[in-house]
Design goal:
- The complex is a heterodimer of chains A (about 290) and B (about 180).
- Chain A is an alpha+beta fold.
- Chain A has 5 helices and 14 strands.
- In chain A, the strands form 3 sheets. In chain A, strands 2-7-8-13-12 form a 5-stranded mixed beta barrel. In chain A, strands 6-5-11-10 form a 4-stranded antiparallel sheet, with no helix packed on it. Chain A has a two-stranded antiparallel ribbon with strand order 3-4.
- The longest helix of chain A is centred in the last third of the chain and has 34 residues.
- The two termini of chain A are about 20 Å apart.
- Chain B has 6 helices and no strands.
- Chain B has a single domain, classed as de novo design (two linked rop proteins).
- Classes of the chains: A alpha+beta (about 290), B mainly alpha (about 180).
Chain lengths: ~290, ~180
């Protein structure tokens, strides 16, 4: 391949990459600037901006594999020096969900759906000899967390056989007695102790006590079930989830302040524009020479 | 070559102008969305007021003047919500909130009314709605601020003028 063709193709790639970078970062910056910050619990479902602190979401804490520092999320990029520049040889990041909490509530963020701290400077760079280094990004418990994405309510799984919400124990007891009265034969078999074919006042009182005990037992089992469910899903109190929207709007999560994220997006947008203009100008110049 | 370079610059300028226009559309729609979120809560709260009046009226001797004033303030708030701007709605809301607070304060002296489960449920519901309205109002006003800054900032102010994007009014609950 001739040098001229190589330069032409290189310029075309730079121009195209620059265009995508320019538009993508300009749009993200525009969305960030144009969206007011909501509170988690009172935000309307949809594309929202949130600000709070990072906290664990019921998963075991993780620690980065290089410095072994405990955190909620990490990303490690391993780079090798090839004599001219650093090249990426390995990327690794944690997958355990974390939560963003503000003064009103919490929402779940699943790494992988979100590129956390994308394009931000690493928190640490650890050198291993002269030709290997690790760039480490971390989000720790209590770190400030900024997020822009699609907020939705998480569905809570109802407990099986639960007494409907809003029904008191007394109402449940009356309802249970009504159910028992529908099956007279069974009711007599169970509570007609003197065998006279009728439920008298004393026997009815025994039936009421039995109904009360049944309801109390059910409530106790429900409470125990709720405890078991809470132990199995310690993130159950996190009522919301932030995800990537179905359209092409971005999901941005960062432990850096909003102003810093915005500044970086704008800078990358200008760099993208410069790449686009330079690459396209060279392509036009090369085409002009070719056709001349 | 020069012609092509000029074409390229025109393309860049066109993309930039489209992005600025889309920014104006975004902030305008964010204000409308934030308003819709408050509007639905104000209507829900307004629907609870007649029930509160009915419950209080059942207690002979409860100050009927207060209840009449509350009904009037509610009617004014409903009318403002139906067709007025944020300033008028804010003023009507301020009056309605003052009247609701007055009725609840007087009800404190009525132990039977305070013990009425329907009254307690209504009071809690109205109080919960007021808290949600306060949160949504804060969000609405922040959306309005972003809209107004975008409409007035250079160079979007030129586009805003050409395409009639306007400032929005803050929603403030105070007498005017």
């Amino acid at each position: 391949m001739s040098d001229e063709l190589e330069a032409f193709l290189g310029a075309a790639v730079i121009g195209f990459t620059g265009y995508v970078m320019w538009r993508r970062n300009m749009r993200a910056a525009s969305l960030m600037e144009g969206t007011a910050t909501s509170r988690v619990a009172t935000a309307a479902k949809g594309y929202v901006e949130l600000f709070g602190i990072a906290r664990e979401a019921g998963e075991a804490p993780v620690s980065d594999p290089v410095q072994h520092q405990g955190c909620l999320w990490f990303k490690v990029v391993t780079e090798r020096y090839n004599g001219k520049s650093w090249e990426v040889v390995h990327r690794e990041s944690s997958t355990a969900p974390l939560a963003l909490q503000d003064d009103s509530g919490s929402c779940l963020i699943v790494p992988g759906e979100a590129n956390i701290d994308e394009e931000q400077d690493p928190d640490a760079i650890v050198r291993d000899g002269v030709s290997r280094r690790y760039k480490i990004w971390r989000v720790a418990q209590g770190d400030p967390l900024y997020a822009l994405g699609f907020l939705e309510r998480r569905r809570a799984a109802p407990l099986e056989g639960a007494i409907p919400v809003g029904i008191t124990a007394g109402q449940a007891e009356v309802g249970l007695l009504r159910v028992w009265k529908r099956d007279q034969a069974k009711l007599l078999g169970r509570f007609d102790l003197d065998g006279n074919g009728r439920i008298d006042a004393a026997e009815w009182e025994r039936a009421r006590v039995a109904a009360r005990d049944t309801v109390a037992g059910h409530l106790a089992r429900e409470a125990a079930g709720a405890q078991v469910a809470a132990a199995a899903a310690p993130d159950a109190e996190i009522g919301y989830r932030l995800r990537r929207p179905d359209d092409d709007r971005p999901l941005i999560v960062s432990s850096r302040p909003e102003a810093e994220v915005l500044r970086r997006l704008r800078r990358r947008s200008w760099v993208g524009l410069a790449m686009f203009v330079a690459g396209t100008l060279y392509v036009l110049y090369a085409l002009g020479r070719y056709f001349a | 070559m020069t012609g092509l370079a000029i074409l390229l610059l025109l393309f860049v300028a066109a993309v930039y102008v489209v992005a600025l226009y889309n920014q104006l559309v975004l902030v305008k729609h964010n204000v409308a969305k934030a308003w819709a979120n408050i509007d639905v809560l104000l209507k829900q709260r307004n629907d609870e007021i007649p029930k509160l009046i009915e419950v209080c009226r059942a207690y002979t001797g409860f100050e009927s003047v207060l209840l009449t004033r509350l009904a009037g303030a509610r009617a004014a708030a409903v009318a403002a919500l139906a067709g007025s701007g944020a300033h008028a709605i804010g003023a009507a809301e301020a009056r309605l909130r003052a009247e609701v607070a007055g009725v609840i304060a007087v009800a404190e002296a009525w132990p039977e009314l305070k013990a009425n489960p329907q009254y307690r449920a209504l009071q809690e519901r109205i109080s919960g709605l007021e808290t949600a309205i306060a949160d949504r109002r804060e969000f609405y006003n922040e959306s309005v601020r972003i809209n107004n800054v975008t409409v007035e900032r250079f160079p979007t102010n030129m586009l805003a003028g050409w395409f009639a994007f306007r400032r929005a009014d803050l929603l403030e609950f105070r007498d005017v």
